[in-house]
Amino acid sequence: MTEPAGAYCYRHPNRETLIRCTRCDRPICPDCMRPASVGFHCPDDVESGRRTTRAARTAVGAKLLSSPPYVTIALIVANVAIYVWTGTHSIYGLNDPHRAQLFIDWQLQPKDVHDADHYYELLTAAFLHVNLLHIGTNMLSLAIIGPPLEALLGRWRFGALYLLSALGGSAAIYAFSSNVYGTTVGASGAIFGLFGAAVPLVRKLSLDPQWLIAVVAFNFVVTFSVHNISKLGHLGGFATGVLAGIAIGGLPRVRERIALPVQVAGLSGVAVAVALVVVLRTATW
Fold first, then answer.
1. Can you give the pLDDT of all 285 residues of the chain as single tens digits?
2. CATH 1.20.1540.10 spans which residues of the chain?
3. 188 an active-site residue?
4. Domain 70-283 class, CATH top level
């Protein structure tokens, strides 16, 4: 009795095979076989299935990521790299980098922003730190709150939230500080913004609201108890984060997903509000 002749792989005509794709019934060789729940699929059907299958999304519409929190990691790396740069270019070393020229150029001083039009300081100051304890506590906080927020929001929403919160904290200092010659640095305004955004997003993060409230309350107690901490920066960053969190996820009681155009419009509105605070302060100086 003779064996039945096999067909030839549709992608490799010189390879004989007895296996067929369970979806399209085309013959496939071992190199083209893709395991499926039943039998094997050919590469074309696998690719077609990927294009037609909708990606899983979070409660705010971001693609569900299985990769590490790259934005959080990038922000930590950027802060640490800038700290090391300023520390190694300061005569006092890593524990006192404020003598480095980059530190002097990037720190936030309201009078300098107004008189020299150095509006970039509103953002660059958020990447400077005065000593190891300062950057250590800020980066630890970012490493704790950043990954779960980035997983929920996705990369671009999380990045926008961080930058808006940093600018919001700086805008509050620029607009309301009574010491226009004082200087301010640090990522804490941006980090307070992340905690602020977590308040309206607490249900979507599946967090215990009592735990979050306790953490936020503790941070504000420290803010108003310790000397030389920028109270305006923390308050401005927190308020900006709350508004950005509402723009992305709605109020805490809102359970349905906010549409992407509404999220973009909301975040743009927060950016405009921050810019308006700066413009009004400049106009009334």
1. 444 456 899 999 999 998 899 889 899 999 999 988 778 899 998 888 777 666 688 889 998 888 899 999 999 999 999 999 999 999 888 888 989 999 999 999 999 999 999 999 999 999 999 999 999 999 999 999 999 999 999 999 999 999 999 999 999 999 999 999 999 999 999 999 999 999 999 888 777 788 888 989 999 998 998 888 999 999 999 999 999 999 999 987 777 889 999 999 999 999 999 999 999 999 999
2. 70-283
3. yes
4. mainly alpha
pTM of the complete model:
0.82
Closest CA to 11 of 41, 50, 51, 36: 41
38 dihedral zone (left: phi>0; alpha: psi -120 to 50; beta) = beta
Q: Which residue type is seen at 54?
A: R
Q: Is 96 left (phi over 0), alpha (psi -120 to 50) or beta?
A: beta
Question: Is 234 a known active-site residue?
Answer: yes
Catalytic residue among 89, 188, 227, 268: 188
